[in-house]
Design brief:
The protein contains 8 helices and 12 strands. By secondary structure, the protein is α/β, with parallel strands linked by helices. Strands 4-3-2-5-6-12-11 form a 7-stranded mixed beta sheet, with helices on both faces. Strands 1-10-9-8-7 form a 5-stranded mixed beta sheet. Helix 3 packs across helix 4.
Length: 254
């Protein structure tokens, strides 16, 4: 199925600086998460762009775009969109949808791009992957540098308080005849997800590791980066953020 089958066991070290580059670049990441709700994603983009009152043909950056599901829909809404991601495989797949106003490229979110954007979206908990705390701050500073004078940025993160309260320690998900065995736990300020499975006689083990940032953590980092937090929401319908009950932590800033 992929070059990951060359070895008897594939293991991603959670202490690796770039563990996400390995896991997100495999076909198995996309198989496991293939059932993501696309209509919900579109509804979120509808609500968000309406709230931000983006100008016609606004330039939008989809930061950590994956295969480009949000980028493609934003482009269909009439915006000029650039989707960037560290995963070469994801960008290769997303690039099949390229047109005059929709482009994709491999890029590290810690580094600013040369262009300026009217809106920068970092969606679906695509933040908090780095081992070094300064890299999270570098990402926020890069976002700030890439915003136009009147631009807005959005980070759509998990609500850590709600996630920890409802954490499912173990479960098995069967997708495309693969049984993904998943373990979740919280250690030293990170939420871990261990994913193990067998495919074609080969054993695979991957780990997702995301910093358990709270709103207070983001507020502190944004202050340090010289960013102004304008509003927060708790779900994709842009309802009020509730510290314990909201599923998402959606932050609007500039």
């Amino acid at each position: 199925m992929s070059n990951f089958q060359n070895n008897k066991s594939q293991i991603v070290n959670p202490k690796s600086e770039n563990w996400f580059a390995s896991w997100f670049d495999t076909p198995y990441y996309h198989i496991l998460y293939k059932e993501r709700n696309y209509r919900e994603a579109q509804l979120f983009m509808d609500n968000l762009t309406l709230y931000l009152n983006l100008p016609e043909h606004a330039k939008v950056l989809d930061l950590a775009c994956g295969k480009g599901r949000h980028s493609i829909y934003l482009n269909q809404l009439g915006y000029e969109v650039l989707g960037v991601d560290l995963s070469e495989n994801s960008i290769a797949e997303a690039s099949k949808n390229t047109n005059d106003t929709l482009h994709f490229q491999v890029h590290d979110m810690r580094e600013p791009l040369e262009a300026k954007f009217d809106a920068i979206f970092n969606l679906f908990t695509s933040f908090g992957y780095f081992e070094n705390e300064t890299d999270h701050l570098k990402t926020l500073i890069s976002i700030k540098e890439n915003l136009s004078e009147y631009g807005f940025a959005v980070i759509d993160f998990m609500n850590v308080n709600n996630v920890l309260e409802n954490l499912i320690p173990e479960e098995t998900k069967s997708v495309e005849d693969i049984d993904f065995h998943i373990k979740r736990y919280h250690i030293d300020g990170y939420i871990y997800k261990e994913i193990s499975f067998t495919d074609n006689g080969e054993n695979f083990n991957f780990i997702e590791k995301v910093r358990a940032f709270t709103l207070e953590d983001f507020t502190r980092m944004m202050d340090e980066a010289g960013i102004f937090l304008l509003d927060t929401f708790g779900d994709y319908k842009l309802k009020k953020f509730l510290k314990k009950d909201s599923e998402r932590l959606i932050m609007i800033f500039k």
